[in-house]
Design a protein that fits this description.
Elements lengths: L8 H12 L5 E7 L9 H4 L7 E6 L6 H11 L5 E5 L5 H14 L10 E7 L5 H9 L17 E4 L4 E5 L11 H10 L9 H15 L1 H8 L8 H12 L10 H13 L10 E5 L5 E5 L4
Parallel strand pairs: 1-2, 1-4, 2-3, 4-6
Antiparallel strand pairs: 5-6, 7-8
Helix pairs in contact: 6-7, 7-9, 7-10, 9-10
This protein binds guanosine-5',3'-tetraphosphate.
Length: 291
């Protein structure tokens, strides 16, 4: 099944971001720490040029910390990029981000000349949560349904920093289907655009290879099942996802598995690791797809 999801407001939002970027000092690109490559929008990357750019690896509380450290090292090899793992729900961690913005715009942050920061990212990576934590109050709608912010808004943090909140934007062509499946696994793709069984099987295959101990522990498995379908059946048995005749409901089991994985119920899981292609023409990509 091919995953494509590009709600109508996103093209317009991308144009607005392109205009706004000229008038800000620093860009905060919020990524999902579990899939920092696939949750980075290459359309935003094209707008970067020399603008100071912070890649926030949010939800690091859900990701494998060794893998997150590897991503930070890789991102910071690129000129003009700083990378910071945080949990947007933790005020103490988001404070570091403000300090970094001030550091990257030393000529601003004076009365009448705030540091102008734009917050960008794909849906569901935690932009609204971050803005609410930084503002100390509810300014942006947080939700488990992706793409609920559809307009830009300006928020004065009253500490010499002004934030531009922007809607989550994806890209129209989802040519990197393994990446699209990782996005779907994380919850960044609208439920109407995916099939839980296919995405659940995709996610199961990866987690079975990379984190078998976490699965055995969570679903009380003596041995790892031979394949992803058998694994999802075990999840269905364990969580009671049954049809009326007692047969396992594979779709419900896959959905339940994804819900648990997304919420961190299995433990800390990263869905991709950094790899560099070629020595001369290096490009950061991601490994970790069984597709
Ligand atoms: P968005 O604006 O980029 O679309 O994302 P939003 O802030 O709405 O966050 C999407 C979901 O991710 C929310 O979950 C939010 O609580 C969760 N989230 C954001 N930051 C973090 C983080 O650092 N760690 C973890 N573990 N979760 C984070 P939700 O299902 O709507 O949950 P709830 O907060 O409503 O219970």
């Amino acid at each position: 099944m091919t995953i494509r999801w590009y709600p109508g407001h996103m093209g317009k939002a991308l144009e607005q971001i392109g205009d706004l970027i000229k008038r800000v000092d620093v860009v905060i690109e919020v990524l999902d720490a579990r899939l920092p490559f696939s949750s980075s929008n290459h359309k935003l990357e094209e707008l970067r040029r020399t603008k100071p750019w912070i890649k926030v690896l949010n939800k690091h509380d859900l990701a494998d910390s060794a893998v997150t450290k590897a991503w930070v090292r890789e991102f910071e090899k690129q000129a003009g990029i700083r990378a910071l793992p945080i949990s947007a729900r933790q005020h103490s961690e988001t404070k570091q981000l403000i300090k970094l913005c001030q550091l990257l715009a030393p000529k601003r942050g004076k009365p009448g000349f705030p540091v102008r920061v734009m917050v960008v990212g794909i849906p569901n990576v935690g932009k609204s949560t971050l803005i609410n934590t930084l503002a100390g109050r509810s300014m942006a709608k947080v939700g488990d349904k992706p793409a609920i912010t559809t307009t830009t808004q300006l928020i004065d943090l009253k500490n010499g920093v002004v934030l531009n909140d922007t809607p989550g934007v994806l890209w129209p062509d989802m040519d990197d289907q393994p990446g699209a499946y990782r996005l779907a696994t994380s919850g960044a793709i609208g439920a109407n655009a995916l099939d839980y069984t296919t995405v659940g099987l995709f996610a199961a295959e990866y987690v079975m290879q990379r984190y078998p101990g976490l699965l055995k522990n969570r679903y009380k498995l003596a041995d790892m099942p031979d394949n992803a379908t058998e694994f999802i059946e075990s999840v269905g048995r364990c969580l009671g996802c049954l049809k009326s005749g007692g047969e396992i409901d594979l779709n419900r089991a896959a959905e339940a598995f994804l819900r648990e994985l997304r919420a961190g119920k299995l433990g800390r899981v990263s869905l991709e690791e950094p790899v560099r292609d070629g020595a001369d023409n290096e490009m950061l990509t991601a490994s970790g797809s069984p597709l």
